[in-house]
Amino acid sequence: MLTYLTAGESHGPELSGILTGIPAGLHLDIDEINTALSARQGGYGRGNRQKIEHDQVIITGGVRHGVTLGSPIALTVKNRDHAQWSEIMNPTSPATPENTLRKVSRPRPGHADLVGGMKYGHRDMRNVLERSSARETAMRVAVGNICKQVLEALNIKIIGYVEAIGGVNADSSQPTQVDTIVNLIEQNDLRVTDQSQIEPIHEMIDDAKRNGDTLGGVIRVVAENVPAGLGSYVSWDTKLDAKLAAAVMGVNAMKGVEIGDGFENAVHPGSQVMDEIDWQEGQGFSRNSDHLGGFEGGMTNGMPVIVKAAMKPIPTLYKPLQSADINSKEVKKATVERSDTTAIVPASIVIESVVSIELAKAITDTFDGSNIDRLKKQIADYRQELQNF
Ligand SMILES: Cc1cc2nc3c(=O)[nH]c(=O)nc-3n(C[C@H](O)[C@H](O)[C@H](O)COP(=O)(O)O)c2cc1C
C-alpha cells in the first residue's frame, strides 16, 4: 500500500519522511526531487526564510545505487535555519529559562496557534506553530516528486500552477496540455500562464507587503494521459475524486477544492455541462469536452484530470490583527512570525505533489505495484484493453 508519514518542526533539526509502496526497479532522479524542492522555495511574494534554506533531499533507506528496492524509502530535508534555533528547538535538552525564549502567547487569527494550544495543553504556542507551519510541505514535495516519477514512468504527465492571485485571474486560456502549461509558467516567477497579468500582480503583492497584508489565490492541477477506471463508483470511500479532495484539503491554508469546472457547472443546465461521448477507430472512447475534470462516478474517465484549490491569504500579518494574550488575557495585537506575503506559488507545487501521491496510490491499488517494469506492462495492456472496449 502506498502511504507516507512526515515528522519534524519548522525550526527543528530536520524534516523526516517515510514513503512505502513505491515499486522496485524505479530509477530515481534525485536532481528532479531537488529541483521540485527548490521550486517550492521560489516565487514572488515569499519571505526571508527561503534565503536561508537550500532544500536538498537525503535518502537513507529504500534506494540502492539510485534504484528503488520496494522497501520503505526514508527521506530527510535539513532545516538550515535550525542553526539559529539550536537551543530553543533542541529536541532533548531539558527546558531552562534561556532555551525557552521566543514563547508565543498571542495567537494569530487564522493560524492553528490558539486551538492547537487549547487542544494539546500547550501554554507556549510555539509548540503548535512549529508543526502547523507549512515548512512541513517541503517533505510532501519530496515524497510527491517520487510519486510523480512513478507517473512519468507510466507516461502520465502532471503540473500544478497558479490560476489566480488575490482575485486577479492569470489563466484565461485554461490549457489542458501539460507541456503547454510548463512552457508558459516557466517564463515568469508567478507560475502563471498569462504573461500580461504579471506586472499588475507583482504590484498587488508589493502593495500588500507594504501594507503588512497578505494574499491568497487559486491553484490548478492538470494530469494528462491518466488511464480511465482509477477509483471506483461502488462505495463512497473508493471514489478517487473524494480522495483527491481530501489530499488537497490536507494542505495548509486550502479552503476549497473543485474537480473540473465544479462550481461553474452548478449554474448551467446539464446540456452544457456533460462531456459528450465520442468513439474513433484506433482510439476508442473519448469525450468532446472536459467540464467534469476527468471524473465520472468517482473514476477517472481518460480525459485530463483537473483539480483546483482555493488558498486563503496567509494568516500571519506584519500589521497584526487583534488577538488576546493567553496569560494576561489582555486584548493585544497578534504575534508576528517571519512570513510570506503570498505563498500561492510554492503551494501550487505542494498541490501538484499531493495529487501525484493520490494518483500513484490509485494506480498501485489497482495494479500490482511491486515492480515498475511489471507495472508498466500491466498499464500498457490495460490501455490496449480499454482502446478495444
Ligand atoms: C507553501 C505554504 C506556505 C505558507 N507560508 C505561511 C507563512 O509564511 N505564514 C503563515 O502564517 N502561514 C503560511 N501558510 C499557511 C499556514 O500554514 C496555514 O494557514 C496554517 O497552518 C493554518 O492552517 P489552515 O489555514 O489550513 O487552517 C503557508 C501555507 C503553504 C501551503
TrEMBL record:
Region of interest: Disordered: 88-110
Which amino acid positions bind NADP(+), per UniProt? 40, 46
Key word Flavoprotein present: yes
Q: Which InterPro entries match?
A: Chorismate_synth (IPR000453), Chorismate_synth_AroC_sf (IPR035904), Chorismate_synthase_CS (IPR020541)
The alphabetized list of GO BP terms reads: amino acid biosynthetic process; aromatic amino acid family biosynthetic process; chorismate biosynthetic process
Subunit structure of this chain's protein: Homotetramer.
Coiled-coil annotation reads: none
Q: What is this protein called?
A: Chorismate synthase
Organism the protein comes from: Fructobacillus ficulneus
> Which GO terms fall under molecular function for this chain's record?
chorismate synthase activity; FMN binding
